[in-house]
Each structure stands twice: as structure tokens, then as C-alpha cells.
């Protein structure tokens, strides 16, 4: 059983290492690369809290030396992994939501934040946090601090492996990654073969583009987290290999 990881670095290598600890071999074919965006951030003293939906936002702010002025703010992270990264970088008051934008909005609303929320985000957003919090009377200032740039081609070894049906499954962590994958493999995987390739997805939203392109062997994590993806990968590998 060999799997293909499509998420960007450095997360792809981290997932590969965790799969290896479960005796699952994996290749890496990142479909996006993070680029920090230039620009000036608004003064931190105008915000009552920080919202985070990605560790990439933290990495972008860290690399541009923009984190320290925010350390005294309470942080609301979309999930445990992003919360852990925030604590590692120096935030002391961090609350983790349940892994979805909806749960993050609910967590912030219930905290009764007393002022505008700063939301450093990616250029391509999969959800609208400002819209979700508007009914609660909360203002969200969304500032793009990074962009995930799509790759224009798959790595040659990944193409060869897909063409030879060498991968037991492909892992997807974001809808945009799934969309890019479908575009890049249009001439690599025949429609009939797509129905036989298992795809392991973080959520239904992530899986939607794959289903639209006739990848019908879709496995969904029972929770939008890395732990759930790894548990599903292990269960699937054991089922396929009988071990």
C-alpha cells in the first residue's frame, strides 16, 4: 500500500512521516506553494482578538516579523492543529474550535469578543468568516497575508505512479487542492480508472470536485482533522492489505 499526499509543504512531509510511523509508505506531490503577500497590517491595538483558519497565516506573519505585536490578543483557531501552532509561536490565550469555519464563528460569538476581530488569511478563501459573524454584531477585518499558488504540473514520478495505478489512495486536505488535481490529471487518468482510485478526503466539501470528475471511491474523514485523516488511512490500508 502506497499513498500519494497532495498537500503543500511543510505539511506534506509531516503527514508522510506520520504515515510512515503507521507503516504506510507515501509519495509527496504538493499541488500548491505558499507565497507571502506584501502589504501593511492594520495597527494591532484596534482589535480585540485574532481569528485563524490556517497555520499558513501564522507562518506568513512569523516570516514577516508581524506576530509579536499580536501576542497579547486572544486567539481563536479553527482547530487543534492551528491552535497548537499558535501556542508554539508565542500566543498565550488560544481557544480551538472544532475544525470548521462554522464552529470557529460559533466559538468567537460565544466568547462575546468586545471589539473587531483581526483575521489574517489566504488570498483564496473557502468561507466567509466576516459574513458568519455579522449577525452577532462582530466586525471582522480580513487581511490576505499569503497566497497558495497552484502548481502547473504534477511531478513526473506522481504522473507515472498514477498512470500505472501504483497508488492505493490519494489524500486531499482542501477543496482547492482537489480542484487543481482534477485539472492536472485530466489527461493522465482515464475516466474509467478514476472510478477505481480511492481518494481520502478531509470533508464533503473537499470531496465535491473529485466526485464531479468521476472519482467515485471517496472516503471521508469523520472529523476535519489530521488525526481523523490518519485514522482513516490506517483503517483503509489494513482493509486492503488484510493486516
Automatic annotation (TrEMBL):
Catalytic activity: hydroxymethylbilane = uroporphyrinogen III + H2O
Single biological process term from Gene Ontology: uroporphyrinogen III biosynthetic process
Source organism, top-level taxon: Bacteria
Record pathway: Porphyrin-containing compound metabolism; protoporphyrin-IX biosynthesis; coproporphyrinogen-III from 5-aminolevulinate: step 3/4
EC number: 4.2.1.75
Keyword Lyase: yes
GO molecular function: uroporphyrinogen-III synthase activity
Pfam families: HEM4
Keywords associated with the record: Lyase, Porphyrin biosynthesis
Start and end residues of each Tetrapyrrole biosynthesis uroporphyrinogen III synthase domain: 28-230
InterPro entries named among the record's database cross-references: 4pyrrol_syn_uPrphyn_synt_sf (IPR036108), 4pyrrol_synth_uPrphyn_synth (IPR003754), UROS/Hem4 (IPR039793)
Classification via PANTHER family: UROPORPHYRINOGEN-III SYNTHASE, CHLOROPLASTIC
Entry function: Catalyzes cyclization of the linear tetrapyrrole, hydroxymethylbilane, to the macrocyclic uroporphyrinogen III.
Similarity annotation: Belongs to the uroporphyrinogen-III synthase family.
Protein name: Uroporphyrinogen-III synthase
Lineage of producing organism: Bacteria, Pseudomonadati, Pseudomonadota, Alphaproteobacteria, Hyphomicrobiales
